[in-house]
Amino acid sequence: MKSDNNSHYLMYRVLGISDDEEGKLIDLYQNKGRFLYMYAGEFLEEAAIYCMKYKYLDAAKIKIPNTLGSRPKTFEIDCLVGNKAHEIKWRDATTDGGHVTKERTRVKVINEKGYVPIRVMFYYPQRVQAQKIQAALEKLYTEIGGKYYYGESAWHYLKEFTGIDLLEILEQIATSRLNS
User: Fold this and answer.
1) 108-162 pLDDT, tens digit each
2) Burial class of residue 55, CB neighbours in 10 A (0-12, 13-18, 19+)
3) Which of 45, 57, 126, 174 is most buried, by the most CB atoms less than 10 A from its CB?
4) How many domains does the chain contain in total?
5) Is residue 91 part of a domain?
6) What separation in angstroms does the CA of 49 have from each of 33, 54, 110, 113, 135?
7) What is the DSSP secondary structure assignment for residue 126, as one 8-state letter?
8) CATH number of the domain to which 136 belongs
């Protein structure tokens, strides 16, 4: 980042950030945040899938064709166990209308295929608009006979479904890192 072109600092100054050091910190933390969100989410989602695969040897990530539209051509099921189609999210703070339409279609396609759509989202979004979208998705899952778990209920579901207390494992890792 030290060799980055910082001409965009002009816009920071226009918005009242007159100190170039503060501009550098803004860019640094914005990049750290993007990196952390991406990898923290990927880590948690993969850990949850690993718990399912450990308990259920036939668990698999699969793709199914989109039978209700042309885009996207397929939908991915993060972890299919029997007829239970798990969508694993560490959190979903999206407010994008296209994303919502795609998610609604995905759930309907999974249901039509004969699978029970199950959303497991460990952290609920903070913004009101994103919460409204999640509430609408929860309603859709429920209406078609699916399940929707978030927050504590997501951790509890994973523990009950797999016998593995991933939350406790992660808390132990975090505690040992702080104490070392």
Assistant:
1) 999 999 999 999 999 999 889 888 889 989 999 999 999 999 999 999 999 999 9
2) middle
3) 45
4) 1
5) yes
6) 24, 9, 18, 21, 24
7) S
8) 3.40.1350
